[in-house]
Amino acid sequence: MRTTRTRATARRWAAAASTTALAVAAAPAWASTTSEGDGEQQPASIMLVLDASGSMAADDAGGGTRMEAARKALTDAVDNLPEDADVGLRVYGATEPNDEKTEAACTDTQVVVPLGPVDPAALKDAVRDVEPSGFTPIAYALSQAADDLGDADNRHIILVSDGEETCDPDPCETVEQLGADGIDVQIDTVGYGVEEKAQGQLRCIAEATGGTYLSAPDGKSLEIALDKLSTRALRGFTVQGTPVEGVDRTRTDQAPVLEPGQYTDTISTGTKQAEYYSLAPTTPDHRLQVSVTSRPPATGESFDEESFALEVNDQNGDSCGYNHDFRFADLGLSGAVTTVLTVDDDCLTGEPLLLKVERGGDGKRPAPVELVVREVPVAQDVDSLPAGVDGEITVPDELAPKEDEAEPVVGGGSFSDAVSLEPGTYVEQLIPGEQAYFSTTVDWGQSAQLIVEGPTDDSYLSDEANDYLWVHATFHEPDRRAVSNPNASAYASYHLGSPPERYVVVVPEVRYRNALDSYPSEARWVSEAGTYYFTLAVPPKYQGNAEGRPVPIEFTVAVEGEVTGVPTFPESDAAVATEIAASTGDATDTAASTAPDASTAPATPTPQAASADGTAEEDGDRSLLWWVAGGALAVLLASGGGLWVAANRGRSQSS
Asked: Of 5, 288, 505, 526, which sits 20 to 30 A from 214 (CA to CA)?
């Protein structure tokens, strides 16, 4: 969904098409170098909070006691915690009896492993020593766990409870107050064999803090839930780049100067909260493009809106371009929103420009954003390239076949750590409300399909009328704009008794001239070869029988066609293209692991990232190199390489 305006006219773009179709070299995972003095990497800080109340002595549905099952589940899970994390363990209800509700019983919580570098042996020993005894003071234990985390970055709590709060106050009110006091902590909760009231309490705690609620009716389910949280849910959506702080409209003369590169900031909603930046003069024979990407925290409402607007003005206050993009939280799912603006050529006079970034919509909390400034070189052979795709994007009559065996994969938590996949069939476990990020390479002249095959068995489906399991799937261009879906619905739906559906999202043939020739088709946005991102999610509302359960979703990735219609770039930019093309030859197979090969990582400073709760986070697996040759600047995003070209966006924006 886009609303755009520029000073350029369609007639002028048509006349200038041969000189304004552009190329930029980049790689799949957006990231950048850090500024000097950014500091060292800050690990995730995690407090495990375990229920040791008397009810944990009850029998587990799978045999043994609940505490025995919890010990096994936690012992297995600690082996999957991030190696660079700081981890501690707190228990509650472990020392006081549960025969009388006293002050001691309602403050019965202890740290049994202090927060520090992850120590699996110490955590396992402590878990084995816990015995069930007392009451369930969840609220007090959570407030103490938040204190345990202190001022650490990337604060997380994983709470395992088999019952509801038995003291005062209400734990949901407690965690809401933590947020009101400016204490940002994500709390993931696991309801172990809980009834409806306790389930509602634990779900409320998770939703209030941007966390995840999982249901575990028995010990085996608890193992799956804790394994899922330890390997995935701790990795939230992140933005990466050099930290900057925009200024308000009363201080635009002090706006930070953004050279070509990648930056992070935090922006609130409302016109009074708009942030301003200065754009450095552009290299001759290049165009200037800016973008903003964010995934603000979900509010839990079905149709909440998030939007970002970009506006650039010259020193006289005249508009040099405007673009606005937004997304709705369909079925409670909060996706990323990216707005991209190509600055009007008339404004590229060698003088600084003023960039305004404004966030709108229903979000109440500040959101971290990623700002990218690119100088885009001009291609030399626009007239000789294949014409743009004619007509709307459609689902092919013949879909790519599904492979006999699906390979398990764990997707990334954001564009920045999207997992690169070769064509094939995969299975991912998705928690309702969770969004997994993947990527694949689509070269010039090629097209791609993402085919959602559906859940692996019917136990996640309901036969109740209008009670469907929904799966959301999207494709995103290298600049992260969503490729419009050719389906009538943005979701695949599955219902017990209905035939399974193969739901398809399509990237049409990637051609440089799509941006020039394919209007008004949505294919006009698909004019960049390289890394295309895709996301899969099960929305948190209306999910059949899958509430609180990781759902195994099969999907197929297909890339078709020969490499054709490769543009020619100026000689100074061609050297960069050669470097990038070479880097794509050793694509890392990350289906089994999200970690890039350290031997291929560039020797550049580690980028600083900000998670969706606004805290700072470091990611050493991604970096941005700026290659300068003969005065022409191109971008190499080095975590797998990939060449892509951003053709003239001006015509599309003014349409």
From this structure: 505
Residues β-bridged to residue 244: none
Q: HSE, CB side, 13 Å, CA atoms: give it for residue 417.
A: 26
User: With DSSP H G I counted as helix, E B as strand and the rest as coil, what are the percentages for the chain, rounded to 5?
Assistant: 25, 35, 45
The rounded distance, in Å, linking the Cα atoms of 593 and 580 is: 23
Q: How confident is the model at residue 625 (pLDDT cuts 50, 70, 90)?
A: very low
Q: Could you check whether the bond before residue 171 is cis, i.e. omega within 30 degrees of 0?
A: no
Helix (H) or strand (E) holding 650: helix 650-654
Two tokens at 278? 């200065």
For residues 185 and 45, the answer to whether their CB atoms sit within 8 Å is: no
| Residue that is written with structure tokens 């899969």 in the block | 536
Q: Where are the domains of the chain?
A: 45-233
Q: Are 368 and 266 in contact (CB under 8 A)?
A: yes
Q: Is the pLDDT of residue 157 over 70?
A: yes
Q: Is 254 exposed, middle or buried (0-12, 13-18, 19+ CB in 10 A)?
A: exposed
Q: Nearest CA to 643 among 383, 390, 356, 377?
A: 377
Burial code of 527-564, b = ≥16 C-beta within 10 A, e = fewer? bbbbbbbbbbbbbbbbbbbbbbbbbbbbbbbbbeeeee
Cα distances (Å, whole numbers) of residue 323 to 256, 307, 352, 409, 655? 21, 11, 19, 36, 11
The label of the residue with tokens 């606004």 reads 614
CA–CA distances in Å: residue 155 to residues 105, 141, 148, 358 = 27, 15, 10, 28
- Helix (H, G, I), strand (E, B), or coil: what is residue 500? coil
431 with 550: CB under 8 angstroms? yes
| Whole-number Å distance between alpha carbons of 79 and 175 | 28
In the sheet that holds 261-267, the strands lie side by side as 337-342, 286-294, 367-377, 261-267, 238-243, 608-611, 616-618
The pLDDT assigned to 231 comes to: 67
**Eight-state DSSP code of residue 596:** P
Two tokens, residue 79: 């082996």
* Nearest one of 245, 277, 276 to 259, comparing CA atoms: 277
- pLDDT above 60: residue 161: yes
Residue 234: what pLDDT?
55
Q: Does domain 45-233 have CATH number 3.30.9.100?
A: no
Helices (H), 212-313: 219-228
Q: Give 491's contacts (C-beta < 8 A, 6+ positions apart).
A: 330, 331, 470, 471, 472, 503, 539
* HSE (side-chain half, CA atoms, 13 Å) at 425: 15
pLDDT, greater one: 562 or 16:
562
| Residue 101: exposure state from Cβ atoms within 10 A (0-12, 13-18, ≥19) | middle
DSSP secondary structure string, 448-473? EEEEEEEESSGGG---STT--EEEEE
Helices and strands, counts by H and E, the chain: 10, 34
Between strands 551-560 and 257-258, the pairing is unpaired
Beta sheet of 353-361, edge-to-edge order: 2-5, 319-328, 305-313, 353-361, 275-279, 257-258
Label the pairing between strands 261-267 and 275-279: unpaired
- Cβ count within 10 A of residue 587: 17
Beta-carbon count within 10 A of 390 CB? 9
Kindly report the backbone phi and psi dihedral angles of residue 384, in degrees, each rounded to the nearest multiple of 5, phi listed first.
Answer: -95, 0
Global pTM value:
0.69
